[in-house]
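Lab notebook: predicted structure, single chain.

Context: the supervisor wants predicted structures on file for every construct in the current expression panel, including those that have not yet been purified. This is the next one on the list. No modifications to the sequence; it matches the entry in the shared construct table.
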Amino acid sequence: MVEQQIVARAEWESARAELLAKEKAATRVADEVRAARRALPMVEVDKGYALAGASGTVGLADLFEGRRQLIVWHFMWRFDTGEGCPSCSLIADNVGDLAHLHGCDTTLAFVSRAPLTAIDRFRRRMGWSVPWYSSEGTDFNRDFMATVDGGDRPGLSVFLRNGDRVFHTYSTYFRGAEAMVGTYNWLDLTPLGRQRYVNEFPYHDRYGN
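Prediction complete. Output recorded below exactly as produced.
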């Protein structure tokens, strides 16, 4: 049972109005942060990366698929079980139809240190269509701080392409990428809230097992 006060409608509306003022203030701050993020300076990526994908070995510029913007999710891998990590899998489940990103000249791709054969096997099992590349044997993860001190961490990096030139514009990790968890955004609206930490959600094909 949720421990919440039960009140008359008028009292609820008053409390809701107070919360709405806080929500609007938070929205204004979030807008300021988004503007500051877009205004960040960028760094040209002049290092070559040989990433393994469905069509063979490709470079970072190829991940754009001809679009101007690229978002890379640094998908952590569980080498002990041969699966993608549960928290990154939850985020993958929340991606939705890629047509909306493509319509905004933006490509989303996953990159993991795992071998491509293991990635393909897991992606087929989970039913995802997001392009997924292996950075095995490259410095990609370390250069973009997705692998630190020998371990991986969840996060994303954003790139901009101008002709043949590629620029790194943004990266964030851990809770900085929490907005990607759409399930949390829905649960945050409810009295029970999130209920589970992000890595406590099972793979979607294991509910009821």
